[in-house]
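Supplementary Note 3. Input sequence used for the single-chain structure prediction.
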Amino acid sequence: MPYFRTILVFSILSFLFSPAIVGQADSTAEQSSVFDPSAADYLWPTNASSYASASFGETRSSHFHAALDVKTWGRKGYDVYATRDGIVHRLGRSPWGYGNVIYLKHDDGSYSVYAHLETFIPKFNQLVDSLRLANFDFIVNEYVQKYNLRVKQGDIIGYTGASGVGPPHLHFELRTPTESPFNPLITNINIKDRVSPRFSSMALEPLGSNATVEDKKSVFIRDTWRRNGVYQFGTIDVAGEVGLSVDAFDMANDVGNVYAAYELSMFVDDHHYFTTRMDSFSYPQAKMMFLDRVYSILKSSNRGFQRLFVKDGNELPFYETNSTDGKLALTEGNHSIKVVARDFYGNQSELRGTIRVSPAKTDIRRETVLNPAQPYLLPALSYQDHRTIIDTWDWNNEWFRPIADDTLELTLRPFKPGANGVKYYIPPNANEGIELGDESYFAIIDSGWFPLFRIFPQQSGTWHHPTQPLSVSAGKRAVFDTLSVSFSSRELNHSNNQSPNTSSSDNAESKAIAEIFIGPNHAPLKSVLGLHYQLPDKIENPEHYAFYRYNERYKKLNFIPARQNGHQLSGYISDFGLYHIVADTTAPKLSTPRMYRNTRGEWRIKVTARDDLSGVDFSGATFTINNERGIVEYDPELDELIYLHPDFKPLKENRYHIIVSDRIGNSTEIEGTLSR
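The predicted structure, written as C-alpha cells, is reproduced below.
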C-alpha cells in the first residue's frame, strides 16, 4: 500500500461522512452504507498513456481541479474505457466546460466522469442526437439512467478529445455517492512518481492594518534557492501579524507536466502551525479556492500561492492548525520557519528560512463620526483617483490602505442618522443631503472622498451611488467575509449615432458611452453582484447596449448578458474590475459554407461566424440543408458553426439557408447552393 494510503482512507471517510456531508445524500439503499473508495477495483480509463498531465486539487481560474487528467500527447481519438461496471447516468455536449462528457454510476452509488471527449460510441451518440433533434439544441445535459445503458469494466465508451476547455487530454473524475469529487490515487489507480516536490517562491502578506513585510504593506514575494538539498528563502523582516504562502509544485517520472503538491506543512521554531492535505471536497466549496490561494497574486499573474493559514471566511475542512489558524503573530526576534511539501507517494522537500519580527507601527487608521447637525461639504476625488484607490490599494474586510505611502492618513467616517432618521452626506456644490443605506461609509483621503458600501455575509441589499446613475445589488452569498466595496462611473464623450461595434475590441472600447469601476480589484466574490446603470435619456435603441468586462492585460472586452427595462441596464458580474457600456449594432459575419467528411466518414457542413463584440449566439442559430433543419454545433476556437443531422447525405446540389444572430440580437441571413 503506497505511502499515506492508510491515513488517506481514514481521512476521506471522516470527511465524506461527517454529518454535514451525509446530509446531502439521498436515502436510496445503495447509498446507505459507508462508501470506501479504496475497496473498489478501478481500471485505468484509457489507452492514450499511463501518465497524468494534471493532479487532483490543482489551482484553476475559479475552482479546485476535481480530477486526474490523463496525458494524450496532444492527440485525439484514443479509446476511453469504463473504469468499473455501471450504468450511464448522464450525457452532455457543450462547447464550454467539460465539453463532451459521460457520467457513469456504479453499483455502490459512486460515480466516474470522463470529460473533453471527441465523441461517444455510436449507441450513445444516437441517443444524444435523438434528444437534441427534438429542439435542435447543441448543448445537452441529460440524465439518461432510464434508458438502462449498462457497461462493463473495460468497455469502450468514447474517445479522447479536446472539447470544452483545454488542449487534448482526458479529464478522469471520481465522485462519492453524494457527488463529492475525490482523489483517484486513493483507489488502486497509480502513476509512476519518485520525484520530490519543488518550491518556486514564497510570499508573506500583512494581515493587520499596522502590519508590514520588509517595511511595506503589500504582499511580499521572494524566489527560493536550493542549498545542500534544502530550499531556502533567507531572512525576511516583518512587523505585526502576517501570513505565509508558497508556490510549490510536484512532478512525476518521464513527463514534464507539473502538479499540485499533495500535502504542505508549516513549522515555526519546530512547533507545528499548519497542514493542508486535500483528499476530497464538495462542489459548493469549490470557490473557496479563492481563499485557499492568495487571490491578488492569482488574479495578477495566474500563480497559485497556497496559504499556510486559514483566511477569514474560509470554511474548507482539510486543514490541521494551531490556535492561531496558522497566522504568524510572533514575538519580537528571530523565528525559524520550515515548510515541508509531500506528494502522494511520500517524496518530500523542505523550505527553510527566518522571519525577523520587529514591533508593529501604530495603526494609522482613524475613525471619526460626523455630526449630523453639521453636514460636511466634501470635495470629490477624480474618477482616475477613485480607480487608483480601488485597483492598487490593499483592502481587507475591516480596513484599506495605500501600499506605497505609509504617511497618508485615512479617515473612515460612517454616516449617522440625522434629524429625520436617514443617513446622508452633502455632495460637492450641493445644498441638500442625499439619503444612503444603513451600511454606507465614506473615506477622507487627503482632500477627497469616496463612498464605501459595507456588504456582509448573509446580507442582501442594493447600494446606490449618491451622485451617479449607478447601483450594485448583492444576494446573501455574494461575499466570503465582510467587505467594503466602492464603485464609480463616468460618461464618455462619444456621439450616439456612431456605431460602437467595429472589427476590433480596442476600437469598441473607444466607442464605449460609459465606464464603471468597482472594487476592491484584488478581492474575490463568492457569488455574483448585480450591476445597474441608468442610460442617458438621449440614448436611442437602448436594447443594443450591454456591459462588457474589460481585460486590461489583454485589451479585450468580454460580453456580460444584460436586460433592459426602458433605459435601465442590469447585468450580473462575477468579478471586480473595469466594465464598459457599449452598443452592438453590427450583425455577425458569415463565410461561404463548406462541405466535408469528419474522421468517422460522416458528412458535415460548416461556416465561419464571427462577431467581435457581443459574440455569436450559436444556440439560436438555424441551419437548413435541402429544407432539413439540423443541429448547429459550435467550435469557439475556430469560430465555426457546424451542421449536423444523422440522416444527412448530400445531393449533387444542396440548398442551404442559415440565420445567425449575435448575443444582442443583430441577425445575418444567407442562402445559396453548395455543390458536393
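Residues 589-675 form a domain with the Immunoglobulin-like fold (CATH 2.60.40.1220). The chain has four domains: 5-186, 198-358, 365-583, 589-675.
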